[in-house]
Write a sequence for this structure.
């Protein structure tokens, strides 16, 4: 399927590693030129070189901290100048889970860390969306995809659940506000996802259990998976990227203000 992304211009925050890197790679494979933004200059530049060589597309690294409106606004203006406009924004600029001191029992929550989690994920996404919207309005075409997470559906992680839930609300609100300009806004909930750090984490888990990393993965995911123990595995970052590339495409016009849960079918709850 031709997604119609040839010649489109995209920004991916958190694009230097993990899910964000996979998102940038897939958009570039589909023909988009991409700005990747994050805080680490060296990692950004390394990833940009890698993805550019791999895909043949223009990949520009721009250092930016999404907690700073000034840096976000500057990053978007630089991106628009280098790319020749902005059609796609993927907000993936936050670490999974949240701060350790904002995710445990309420007695131990550190207010400043909880607020920082919101500042990065929720307000960071808001800042980026606010900065790209004028460019999308001028083009009369735009796609905003917010990468959230299934902590929004699971009680227990106070910071992760609250910030992810708020990102779903932001998604719907922006979809309502921007639809008449040809802009769609959607949200993706990844679950536990395989990234560069996964082999190290699985090795540590396997050592604790006294099993192989493959068996540790099956044990941890079989109980909540409809696929059964034999083929149970976590979702790969590339599979989150396939979903996101579709939502960023011409083919996804019918979908806006919606949430896509990309967990391999984990969970038993019914949502309507």
């Amino acid at each position: 399927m031709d997604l119609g992304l040839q010649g489109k211009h995209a920004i991916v925050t958190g694009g230097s590693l993990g899910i964000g890197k996979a998102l940038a790679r897939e958009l570039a494979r589909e023909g988009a030129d991409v700005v990747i933004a994050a805080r680490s200059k060296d990692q950004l530049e390394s990833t940009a070189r890698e993805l550019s060589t791999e895909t043949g597309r223009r990949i520009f690294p721009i250092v930016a901290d999404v907690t700073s409106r000034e840096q976000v606004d500057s990053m978007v203006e630089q991106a628009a100048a280098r790319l020749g406009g902005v059609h796609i924004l993927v907000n993936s600029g936050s670490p999974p889970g949240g701060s350790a001191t904002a995710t445990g029992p309420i007695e131990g929550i550190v207010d400043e860390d909880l607020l920082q989690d919101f500042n990065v994920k929720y307000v960071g996404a808001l800042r980026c969306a606010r900065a790209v919207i004028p460019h999308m309005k001028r083009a009369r075409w735009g796609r905003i995809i917010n990468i959230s997470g299934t902590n929004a559906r699971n009680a227990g992680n106070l910071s992760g659940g609250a910030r992810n839930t708020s990102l779903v609300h932001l998604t719907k609100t922006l979809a309502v506000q921007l639809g008449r300009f040809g802009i769609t806004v959607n949200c993706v909930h990844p679950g536990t996802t395989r990234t560069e750090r996964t082999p190290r984490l699985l090795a540590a888990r396997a050592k604790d259990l006294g099993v192989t990393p493959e068996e540790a993965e099956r044990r941890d995911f079989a109980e909540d998976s409809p696929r059964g123990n034999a083929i149970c595995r976590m979702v790969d970052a590339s599979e989150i990227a396939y979903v996101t590339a579709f939502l960023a495409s011409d083919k996804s016009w019918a979908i806006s203000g919606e949430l896509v849960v990309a967990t391999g079918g984990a969970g038993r709850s019914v949502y309507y």
Remarks:
- The two ends are 29 Å apart (CA to CA).
- The helical segments are 18-29, 41-55, 69-83, 111-139, 158-178, 198-209, 213-222, 237-247.
